[in-house]
Amino acid sequence: MRVLVTGGAGFIGSQVVAALAARGHDPVVLDALLPAAHPEPPPLPDAEWIHADVRDRAATARALRGVDAVCHQAAMVGLGKDFADAPEYVGCNDLGTAVLLAAMAEAGVTELVLAGSMVVYGEGRYDCPRHGQVRPGPRAAADLTAGRFEPLCRECGAELTPGLVGEDAGMDPRNVYATTKLAQEHLAAAWARATGGRAVALRYHNVYGPGMPRDTPYAGVASFFRSALERGEAPRVFEDGRQRRDFVHVGDVADANAIALEAVRGREPGALSAYNTGSGTPHTVGEMAAVLAAAHGGPSPVVTGEFRLGDVRHITADSRRLRAELGWNSQVGFAEGMAEFATSGLRGAVG
Ligand SMILES: NC(=O)c1ccc[n+]([C@@H]2O[C@H](COP(=O)([O-])OP(=O)(O)OC[C@H]3O[C@@H](n4cnc5c(N)ncnc54)[C@H](O)[C@@H]3O)[C@@H](O)[C@H]2O)c1
Ligand SMILES: [Zn+2]
C-alpha cells in the first residue's frame, strides 16, 4: 500500500514511516520542516519525500499521485508561546487539513488515518460520590495560585475520583491547539460524509520516546524533564506532581497507525471512527519525573507548584476500543520505555 505520511519528518511521523516500511508498505512523506518543530534540520526521512507545506494545494496534489491512503500527522503541536500563535496553529492544523482533504477528494483517495489527540476531551473522566459522572469546568487561576489543583464537583463542591475517559465522552477543548485538533476531526468527518471516505482518528495520549523534540514551547512534558536532566538540572514538576497522564511509547503509536491504515479500508464508508491510543496504565507526572531522573542518574525532581492555565488536571485513556476493534496492543511498558527514553537522543538544539 502506498501511504502519504504528512508530517513524516516529525517525532511520531518518522516512526510511522519506519513502521509502514517494516510492514512492507511504501510510505511517501510530505513535510514543511517547520522551524518551531525543527530548530535544526532533522535526519531526512528514510523514504521518498517532498519538502512542502500541506497548505500548498498543488504540492499536496502532486504528493497524492498513486497514493492509496493518507496518514495525516502534520500539525503544530504544544501550547505555543502565547495567544499570538493562534493564527499559525489554525493555519497549519485546520486550513492544512482542509486543503489536504480537498486534494484527496479531487484525487479520489478515500482512506484517512488522522493523528488525533486526547486534548479534545479537556478534563478526563471524573466521578462525584453524589452526582455520578461529572465534567468539571476549567480551573480558576486563583485556585491554582492557592495550590488547589483538584477540580471539584460543580454541583456540590465534593472531591472527585478521576477515571479513564472513553471515546464517547463530551468534547471540551481548552486551548487553541486543542480546538484545532477537534476541528481536524470534524473536518475529516465532514469529508468522509461528503465523499464516502473512511476515516480513523487515533486520539494519542502523552507520546514519548526517542527522537522527541527538545524543550521548545511546542514540546511535551516528558521532553521538558529529559532536557533538564541533560543540562544537569532537576526536572521541575508543576502543580503538586500528582496530575495523572497516560504515557504511551512512540513505537506503539506508530504501530497503531500502521494497523489503522491496514484496517481503514474495511470500515464503514462515510464515517470517522475515533480511538483512544494510550498504554492503559496511568501514571502521575511526578512519578514520570522521578523514574526519568533515576534512570538518567540525575538530580531528583523538584515540585514547584507552578502551573499553566491551559493544562487539565487528569486525563487518562480507556483504550479498550482500539484493542478490541483493531487488535492493537501496547508493547512497551512504562518502566522499560522511560529507562530507554532517559538516555536516548532528543531532537533539535537546546534553547
Ligand atoms: N507528541 C504527542 O504527545 C502528541 C499527542 C497527541 C497528538 N499528537 C499529534 O501527533 C501529530 C505529530 O506530532 P509530533 O509530536 O510528531 O510533532 P512534530 O512537531 O515532531 O511533528 C509534526 C511534523 O509536521 C510538520 N508540519 C507541521 N505543519 C505542517 C504543514 N502545514 N505542512 C507540512 N508539514 C507540517 C512539522 O514540520 C513536523 O515535522 C500531530 O498531529 C499532533 O497533533 C501528538
Ligand atoms: Zn457532586
UniProtKB/TrEMBL annotation:
Pfam families: Epimerase. Transmembrane segments: none annotated. Residues 3-134, 170-270 form the NAD-dependent epimerase/dehydratase domain. It comes from the Bacteria. This is NAD-dependent dehydratase. It comes from Streptomyces lunaelactis. The lineage of its organism: Bacteria, Bacillati, Actinomycetota, Actinomycetes, Kitasatosporales.
